[in-house]
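Could someone model heme C with this protein?
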Amino acid sequence: MRPFLFPALAIYSASSSYRSIAGNWQAVPNSIQWIDARKHRTQILLDSIPEGDFKAIRFSIGLSEAVNHSDPNLYAAKHPLNPSFNNLHWNWQTGYIFLALEGTYRQSNGQLSGYVYHFANDPQRTTITLTLPKNISGNASLDIDFDIAALLNVPSPISFSKDGASTHSREGDPIPQALKRNLPGAFQIKRIRAAAPIRADTRPLPIDLPDTPTPYPFKLGNRLPIPSLPLDNPLIAERIELGRRLFHDPQLSIDDTIACASCHQEDHAFSDPARISAGVNGQFSRRHSMPLFNLAWKDSFFWDGRAHSLREQVLIPIEDPREMGESIDHVIEKLSADADYPTLFSNAFGSASITPLTIGLALENFLLSLTSYNSKFDQAMSGKAQLSPSEQRGFELFMTEFEPRSRQYGADCFHCHGGALFHGQPLSR
Ligand code: HEC
Ligand code: HEC
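Reply:
Sure, complex below.
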């Protein structure tokens, strides 16, 4: 096997249990977990482990049938089964991906090519049993090695070029069968250590709330997962109102001609029907303006994902010479001299302090409130409207794989635009 680069791995483990000296298996409740090598999320903390001496550990890669087909939208924002959090929900019909292995490999002609192995579907659920080198009791930390070369080779060797560089784990596909045979041998206990100290809860506190904030009811449909809203910037009516005002205000640009809303037009899903948008001084944006809705489910912004929060993102167009061409300091001067803004800021933050942070938080609050969940498509999915025959054909093409091996000739869009939000499947990142 040639070396591969950037392997990304995600594993579901459900119903872990420990084997005590006495020889009976004891289940650990609430032990569904996931790990993600690309995000460096490789530690799992299990509590409520029963007292006693233990000599083996057992866990499954994959979920029970009932959990696999449960409604993904019922899981809290940071629950391991929340599809926005783990990016592993296949789509609303076929449950979760149990293990996603993606990367590049070198072909025999020297060229790099991609591979995507998605191990999923109920029959693939695999139990792993590991004997501990010494009995453990009390708090302990286990380092478990996962050997990807073994997963691809022992006992059933898989070849990207001969067997195929992609699998969606359909019935009869030999790749998931080989992965299932290889999985148990790919795990090994590396060492047992004293338990690592548990980190203190670092929930951020709300920033500068006014004395009597008016909570804003965040609206989402029941087809959408629960998003992870910023805890330090709770949605309140006063902040949304201020953000809406800023969004429509051309004073944010150098010559008071361009507002955010000039390029993000409400009638066009807060995008621009033009391919590129007019900015200040007769200039144009380099790229197409992006639609602004359901941003609460995203964790990176711009086409290339270069901004990691909305509060950072919103300050960038203000200073972009092609867009608004203004300096934040000058915007603050203009807003401070305005008849209304000092009061609006004081309603939203408890004081009239106009800073890059408060401007960012107000725009973030407004943008997070823009949700879409009742389109014709949403209505059709919940049986309240009917797609036209050509819309229905488009939907089927969109949702069908391109996998000639199993005679599937769809447009395969859903792999990158997957789930209820049409974004964020592992392949697309
Ligand atoms: C001149 C046109 C223009 C103006 C003015 C403008 N934008 Fe944008 N906006 C764009 C373009 C173009 C992109 C994509 C740019 C990129 O990817 O580099 C974008 C991207 C965004 C995104 C990212 C959305 C996502 O899903 O990742 C947000 C949020 C946003 N703009 C908010 C704002 C706000 C708030 C303002 C006002 C402070 C603003 N924009 C002003 C053109 C504009
Ligand atoms: C390999 C991943 C991948 C596949 C497959 C894919 N897309 Fe995309 N799509 C993207 C990415 C990434 C973007 C963001 C734009 C960019 O980076 O060029 C995008 C952007 C889009 C946009 C623009 C969205 C907007 O807000 O302006 C549309 C529409 C779209 N895709 C439709 C489709 C359709 C229809 C298919 C199937 C025929 C498809 N895509 C297949 C990755 C993919």
